Amino acid sequence: MATESNDVVTTVRKSYDAYFSRKRDVAEALMADNFRFTSPYDNGIDREAFFSRCWPGGDNVSEFRIERMVPDGDSAYVTYLFTRKDGTASRNTEYVTVANGQVTHVEVFFGANFANGRFVSQEPAKS
Asked: CATH number of the domain at 2-116, out of 3.10.450.50, 3.40.50.10330, 2.30.30.40, 3.40.50.300?
């Protein structure tokens, strides 16, 4: 089990490193063919939709830091803080599942936005 947890943590770290360092070829290699991504805005989208809709958002990030990672069998809970180029920052938690050294699922739980240490109110998404 320790080896499995280490493999999950290593794969998850590599996937975040690839996303935030903008290494798409590495990210693609770490993403399973049956990859699915769910967030408050995305309902189980596939790899193609992820790269079309979500990948470009990483271009707007100036800093990224994993604050905690908690392995959970073949998955891990990851909380991270990222700062955008405009100075606003957000903290999110994701549940990432790994199989055979590749990420198969990511479920995102969004956090609040901050600028200069102060809460920045956001409008709810329109449905």
From this structure: 3.10.450.50
CA 99 to chain centre: 17
Segment 20-40, tens digit of pLDDT? 999 999 999 999 999 999 998
| Distance separating alpha carbons of residues 108 and 4, to the nearest angstrom | 22
Give the Å distances, CA to CA, from 82 to 7, 77, 105, 117.
24, 16, 21, 13
User: How is the chain classified by DSSP, letter by letter?
Assistant: -HHHHHHHHHHHHHHHHHHHTT-HHHHHHHEEEEEEEEETTEEEE-HHHHHHHTGGGGGGEEEEEEEEEEEETTEEEEEEEEEETTSEEEEEEEEEEEETTEEEEEEEE---EEETTEEE--PPPP-
Q: What are phi and psi of 79, to 5 degrees?
A: -110, 130
Q: What is the pTM of this model?
A: 0.87
Cα dihedral sign for 83, 108, 18, 67? positive
* Structure token digits, residue 96: 């990432």
